[in-house]
Design a protein that fits this description.
Strand order of the largest sheet: 1-2-3
Radius of gyration: 16 Å
Order of helices and strands: EEEEEHHEHHH
Number of domains: 2
Strand content: 15-25%
Largest sheet: 3 strands, antiparallel
Number of strands: 6
Bound molecules: zinc ion
Shape: globular
Number of helices: 5
Oligomer: single chain
Helix content: 40-55%
């Protein structure tokens, strides 16, 4: 999504509103700091394929709630979480695919949380990757600390 003022292609989503038949986003250009609004309409339903093979429609609210839980009581602004969900949603609807594996989405969330907050990252990984025991949690922590 290019900034209409300077053409820069990176912006941050400040606010997302569901207006019933579409989604309106307030964005902040990361280059010139001007704000603009984009309007997005969903023309195809995108489904997420879970690890057990079940399919369900992509649901931004559900995704946001999952990320919020992982970030509970961490010093992360709601803006930041909205931004992550916004980027993933953009990917999902612009990928041209009707079905996206849930692992792709989970890994996108992990990538971003890793940069933002290591504790939230581990919480999300524990639930999302269904880590079976403490050793696998430790492996992840070791990787984080070793970076
Ligand atoms: Zn700009």
């Amino acid at each position: 999504m290019k900034c209409p003022f300077c053409g820069h292609n990176r912006s941050r989503v400040l606010d997302t509103r569901d207006s019933g038949d579409g989604i309106r986003r307030r964005r902040l250009c990361l280059n010139c700091n001007k704000r603009f609004t984009t309007y997005e309409q969903v023309s195809v339903a995108v489904h997420v394929i879970k690890s057990d093979g079940r399919r369900e429609p992509f649901d931004r609210t559900k995704l946001l709630n999952g990320i919020r839980m992982a970030c509970a009581k961490r010093p992360i602004a709601m803006d930041e979480l909205e931004g992550i969900v916004g980027q993933i949603e953009e990917y999902v609807y612009n990928s041209g695919q009707a079905e996206i594996p849930s692992t792709v989405i989970g890994n996108m969330v992990l990538d971003r949380l890793q940069d933002i907050d290591p504790v939230a990252y581990i919480r999300f990984a524990t639930v999302y990757l269904e880590l079976p025991d403490l050793n696998s949690v430790r492996d992840i922590i070791d990787k984080l600390v070793g970076r």
